[in-house]
């Protein structure tokens, strides 16, 4: 059975069927059993940019976790967790799981070293040439910087994957005020795109709290003041007896994710049934439907606001961000002062575009460790 027949049997009518894809910038022959979105997934996971995510910060740097092991998330493990959540939702909704998986794996590929802190530094350094946005940088990687073919740049991904990533690039930066996926133009994103945005929010709300507990930046008592955490923890206390703090934390994180996923699934299902959504066209006309209930959205806002105050602005986190800022600024300045040290692909960008953009592209590809080693040579 080829992918067209398989999708016709398994997917809902409002799902994005690969047979209806707008295709690639450079046409390619169909694969006998892999759909275009499966091929995109493999191109992303085999890319050098994806591999580098294993050594890039999610929220907490390796130095912050020194002496406590490597429990906390990297940008790669966060990406895999988002993918897991997104695939669960996609399968339950009968939308295109291959497309959802690809979009989820792609969503953070453009992140520079040191996560959002690094992004803020590069955005300031590149203000004169358009700034820096990790979502836009992912599109740049997929269409220009990654090399899959000997005769042209980029990965030649499908229009739907590139469009989904471009839509993320036009949204406001993540903030505590914006928890829900937002419509960004007159045409509503595919449900597959909406689900990945929602899965990202679910994952970081849950796992940032988990990492902060592991690193000693928060206590269970502090989190028990937050409604979403407390209700999830109380349910685990009722289900199990005499839980250790470590077991309670793990069980509560699982419950947090489950509660958010169930709420989202319920709201999306109600919207599909209530609005008579039976095609991609009626889905796009309906506006964004991958939203949480008002009650859940309020609880998520309370949790994120707390994490912003207690974790993201924690003195230990801010101290390491200051070090990251200094290291990134050094690497960027070095590339500007000595452009002959740029690897050949980035030297070409300097000649064709601008030296600041080439320096930004190069520094963004580096891992946390590479930046720190350049800044603090042995």
From TrEMBL:
Molecular-function GO terms, alphabetical: dGTPase activity
Keyword terms, alphabetized: Hydrolase
Alphabetical list of InterPro entries matching this protein: dGTPase, dGTPase-like, dNTPase_2, HD/PDEase_dom, HD_domain, PHydrolase_assoc_dom
Residues covered by the HD domain: 75-205
Annotated Gene3D superfamilies: Hypothetical protein af1432
Pfam families associated with the record: HD, HD_assoc
Biological-process GO terms, alphabetical: dGTP catabolic process
HAMAP family associated with the record: dGTPase_type2
Family statement: Belongs to the dGTPase family. Type 2 subfamily.
Protein name: Deoxyguanosinetriphosphate triphosphohydrolase-like protein
Species annotation: Botrimarina mediterranea
């Amino acid at each position: 059975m080829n992918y067209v027949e398989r999708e016709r049997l398994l997917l809902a009518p409002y799902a994005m069927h690969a047979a209806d894809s707008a295709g690639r910038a450079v046409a390619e022959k169909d694969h006998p059993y892999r759909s275009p979105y499966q091929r995109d997934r493999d191109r992303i996971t085999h890319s050098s940019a994806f591999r580098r995510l294993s050594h890039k910060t999610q929220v907490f740097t390796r130095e912050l976790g020194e002496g406590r092991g490597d429990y906390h998330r990297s940008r790669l493990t966060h990406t895999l967790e988002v993918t897991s959540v997104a695939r669960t939702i996609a399968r339950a909704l009968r939308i295109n799981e291959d497309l959802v998986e690809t979009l989820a794996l792609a969503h953070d590929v453009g992140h520079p070293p040191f996560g959002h802190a690094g992004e803020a530094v590069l955005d300031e350094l590149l203000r004169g040439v358009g700034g820096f946005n990790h979502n836009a940088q992912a599109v740049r990687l997929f269409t220009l910087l990654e090399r899959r073919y000997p005769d042209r740049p980029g990965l030649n991904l499908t229009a739907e994957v590139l469009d989904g990533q471009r839509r993320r690039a036009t949204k406001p930066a993540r903030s505590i005020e914006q928890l829900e996926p937002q419509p960004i133009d007159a045409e509503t994103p595919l449900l597959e795109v909406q689900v990945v945005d929602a899965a990202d929010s679910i994952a970081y709300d849950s796992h940032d709290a988990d990492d902060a507990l592991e690193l000693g930046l928060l206590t269970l008592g502090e989190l028990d003041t937050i409604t979403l955490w407390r209700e999830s923890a109380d349910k685990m206390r009722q289900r199990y007896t005499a839980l250790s703090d470590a077991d309670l934390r793990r069980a509560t994180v699982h419950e947090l994710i489950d509660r958010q996923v169930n709420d989202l699934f319920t709201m999306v299902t109600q919207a599909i049934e209530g609005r008579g959504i039976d095609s991609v066209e009626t889905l796009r006309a309906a506006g964004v439907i991958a939203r949480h209930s008002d009650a859940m959205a309020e609880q998520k806002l309370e949790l994120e606001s707390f994490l912003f105050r207690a974790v993201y602005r924690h003195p230990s986190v801010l101290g390491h961000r200051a070090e990251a800022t200094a290291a990134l600024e050094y690497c960027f300045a070095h590339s500007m002062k000595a452009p002959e040290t740029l690897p050949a692909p980035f030297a070409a960008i300097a000649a064709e575009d601008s030296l600041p953009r080439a320096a930004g592209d190069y520094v963004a590809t580096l891992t946390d460790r590479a930046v720190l080693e350049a800044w603090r040579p042995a």
